[in-house]
Amino acid sequence: MIKPNVTSHEKNGLSIYTLINEYGLSIEVLNLGGIICSINTPDRNGIFKDIVLGFKDPKHYLGEHPYFGAIVGRFANRIAHGKFTLEGKEYSLAQNNGTNHLHGGLSGFDKVFWEVEPLENENGIQLSYTSKDGEEGYPGNLSVTVDYVLTDDNTLQVKYQAQTNKTTVINLTQHSYFNLSGDFSKQILDHELELNADNYLPIDNTQIPVGNYQSVVGTPFDFSTPKTIGRDIEDKNKQLEIGSGYDHCWVINNPNNEIVKAAEVYHPQSGRTMDVYTDQPGMQLYTANFMDNTLPSKTGGTYGPRSGFCLETQHFPNAPNEPSFPTTILNPGETFTSETWFQFSVK
Ligand code: BGC
């Protein structure tokens, strides 16, 4: 039996932290971007494979990539035209996705170096970062911690906390791309997905939610009972056309803002299963539609479209400009908290 522990080593100027639990499940995390660069889990025959997309050589994470495994902030997903108003003052952010702001801007939480400390009472690490007032255009000095805890029931718990000294907006997520086959030359279309969501947020041509909740019933967005990700992904549907596949936020059925099971993914061939629990109102399913075979894969070749999927637990995109959405405002004296668990098992 392997003793639960946390170790670290340096490679190409980056620190890599390894968490391992008593069943041998292991996770590697970089101080850069809090990037999860590997998750090794067994299939139903006990064969361990790395199930998250990323790079073999960590130095590649210093270059351009689509947020592989990273902590995304200060505001995950899009803010329309990179503008929002708080307490009568308009703030302008980088327009780094067409005319919209995406994932916190040009140098978001995915690109900064985090302080990392082992946790005292749990098998995990705490990452800390203070984003200065005005960084990427956002108001307030924002102190953020993210805990990664690996439990002996094979769960990765991600716990976020933040405080500000000026009223600001916040929306944090984890941007891991999963492929439960562990073979990144394979697409994820055969994975069976169930989402605990009766509604999703339809988007405009620039991928900003139009504001209403849309029932999933009778649409390709209905994952309320398990179906493969690929079953309806090529349907003739305006929303799928806009996203070039799934790149939408589902409204998780969670009226009391508790930690609920939001998603279950099953890969029939390997038996690997992942359950996602969260207290967040939204879940962005992104099926790597814009991956274009330019980045080298860990298992050889390059990453193509649909070689992974992200399940990004978060508040709703563009919430600062959409008063009907749950608020993303954080005031001085308050503590932002959010929690998401990824539980790995086999069937
Ligand atoms: C967004 C996509 C974007 C991807 C990588 C996802 O969270 O929804 O539109 O292309 O991240 O940047």
Bound molecules: beta-D-glucopyranose
Mean pLDDT: 97
Total helical elements: 1
Number of strands: 27
Shape: globular
Folded structure, characterized:
With 347 residues, this protein is mostly beta strands. 2% of the residues lie in helices and 39% in strands. It has one helix and 27 strands. The strands form seven sheets. The chain has a nine-stranded antiparallel beta sheet with strand order 11-12-13-14-27-23-22-17-20, with no helix packed on it. A five-stranded antiparallel beta sheet has the order 1-2-3-4-5, with no helix packed on it. The model has no long low-confidence stretch (mean pLDDT 97). The structure holds beta-D-glucopyranose (BGC). Beta-D-glucopyranose binds at residues 66-67, 77, 207, 247, 284, 286, 290, 312.
Layout: helices, strands, pairs:
Elements (H helix, E strand, L loop, with lengths): L4 E7 L2 E7 L5 E5 L5 E7 L5 E3 L19 E3 L5 E2 L3 E4 L2 E4 L8 E2 L12 E4 L5 E8 L10 E9 L4 E10 L3 E2 L3 E3 L16 E4 L1 E5 L12 E2 L11 E2 L9 H6 L3 E6 L7 E7 L5 E7 L3 E5 L23 E5 L14 E2 L5 E11 L1
The protein binds beta-D-glucopyranose.
